[in-house]
């Protein structure tokens, strides 16, 4: 009996310490978010026996926030700020203009999450947006995640250092690994087995610094109650593996985007499970574990066979490596392969891959459910727990885009469907962040609701919270944006938002492979939203979110208009009308300058920050130069000068417009002008070959760009409105 009482006291002590830790972490978050008002809150932890939830009430003149963990408490805070203070926190605009004395809730608010998991991140996010983040930026993001209810983030920063240690223990030399680890811009595709070495060789200093960063990331996430998803082995090995293990069963794989083959260890080779187990044991030793492991075996690569038994054996071996290291391991798989390669992954193949792993040991991410709900054609992933995810952004492209009605309704519709199998969560799987904040606020509003969101109620609140005032013109603008930018016709397949022709490698055509110019709305239907935002600027100009939105809508209107001007000078060139050609090409180049000036008024659109943050990680000039190359290459050529992915990750950024896109077009227009003077025929292929050399030189040239905003966002937007509005479409 005495032992039992002692043990009970011990458990009580441990629980008390854990509870205090949650309270302390929540108070620290409060201090980071609203330091001036933090002392007006009281924090309490609940037991969470029936899942994640929170309560908001008044207690002894203070605001009481209760939750079962830090995420729930942070979500309570954000709910309070939204509903009682008309406040908002997004990547692109923060409104925290709060009264000194905060209002007290009149009645208790109680919220429960229907979803066990609220997932965050795509592999690609770690490069298209987060490649150069330091701890300060990561801390802000983790706070944002907690405020928005996220409890299951992908956590792969610094993975390369764990692999470095594993391969060193296996007897590999630094020289063996030199061509394996890629540069910092390309880890996503290295981790997924698509490329080796590109953008490297990777300095060991980078590996060590980012492993230290990863320790901070997962520690903070766990302290708030999140369960990070850590990486596992998928079979991708160095070329030197052949030399070290000559009898190993290897197959080459090619991503088909202009990169060399990578090498995959056959899952039936005995080394596969051994290395998988060795990696996880090393990772657990260094970082601990929450038993969630990400592994994507066929990212945009097909297996060697479509035989169901082969696929079952393969997934069983991947899981075996996890299970041997951690009997509680749960495999988290991105369902991208089922979306991108539907011809291969028919029902027998999909079912075979999934059913080889116990249902409670695998979670499937339906990666782009808002575009195509794969769960509906796979029998809800054959009994596996799965998560409804919104992808929305590809490549970090700068465009206004989203499926607002779909995002408002379909997660809840799926949750309430009798055919949803074992749906267990919702999530965000964007390739890049820091665009279209409204779509992400809307998606994560589902965290604490199991019914479709009524946009007639939600959107006006969003605008009110964002701008800090009630304004009819602002509300009108957003109704137009909802019906244009944020609506995708159901009878058309439009995967993502359009880009601008000004970002395309110069051409007389109206679109190129990656700089797609096809809009999901009628161009002129957007113009009244611009009108309304300009009218709202007097009342809303002090709002950070409004200033961002005004610049972003102005940018989008002008980016669309660029196509009109480009097609005008293309037609004039073909007709031999030199006067019209000169007029429209001049206006086109002037538009690029004007957009560059506009984008220089907001920090979100500065190439200079991207390059500066990349160089800041370098410890000497050679490292700084390598990181600058990585930063500039990813968002332009993507690979070498002949890479077919050029412009996939293009951005409309200050500095990039004026120093990269404009000079390309100037050279093209000069060539066309010369042709008009001499009656020469345009040799497009010769121009492309020449401009590729210029682009490659640009990527490899050392240059600083402005890192501080210049000009007033509202005044510059108004100036461009007065200059362009009357002539749109002409």
Shape estimate? globular
Distance between the termini: 89 Å
CATH superfamily of the largest domain: Glycosidases
Q: From the alpha carbons, calculate the radius of gyration and give it in angstroms.
A: 27 Å
Largest sheet at a glance?
Answer: 8 strands, parallel
Percentage beta strand: 5-15%
> How many separate domains make up the residues?
3
- Poorly predicted regions: 1-17
Q: What structural class do the secondary elements suggest?
A: alpha/beta
Order of strands in the sheet with most strands: 8-7-17-16-15-14-13-9
CATH topology of the largest domain: TIM Barrel
Number of helices in the DSSP assignment: 26
Descriptive account of the structure:
The chain is α/β, with parallel strands linked by helices. Helices cover 48% and strands 10% of the residues. It has an eight-stranded parallel beta sheet. It has a four-stranded mixed beta sheet with strand order 1-3-2-6. A three-stranded antiparallel beta sheet has the order 10-12-11, with no helix packed on it. Strand 4 and strand 5 form a beta hairpin. Helix 19 packs across helix 26 (713-724) and helix 21 packs antiparallel against helix 24. The longest helix has 32 residues, at 2-33. The N and C termini lie far apart (89 Å).
Summarize the topology:
Elements: H1 2-33, E1 41-45, E2 53-59, E3 62-67, H2 70-85, E4 88-90, E5 93-95, E6 109-112, E7 117-120, H3 125-128, H4 135-147, E8 152-153, H5 159-169, H6 174-177, H7 187-191, H8 204-223, E9 230-231, E10 236-237, H9 241-244, E11 250-253, E12 262-265, H10 270-287, E13 292-294, H11 308-325, E14 330-334, H12 336-340, H13 347-355, E15 362-366, H14 379-382, E16 385-390, H15 404-415, E17 422-428, H16 437-444, H17 455-467, H18 472-483, H19 523-540, H20 544-575, H21 578-599, H22 607-615, H23 621-634, H24 656-678, H25 684-699, H26 713-724
Parallel strand pairs: 1-3, 7-8, 7-17, 9-13, 13-14, 14-15, 15-16, 16-17
Antiparallel strand pairs: 2-3, 2-6, 4-5, 10-12, 11-12
Helix pairs in contact: 1-2, 2-4, 4-8, 5-8, 5-10, 10-11, 11-13, 17-18, 18-19, 19-20, 19-26, 20-21, 20-26, 21-24, 21-26, 22-23, 24-25
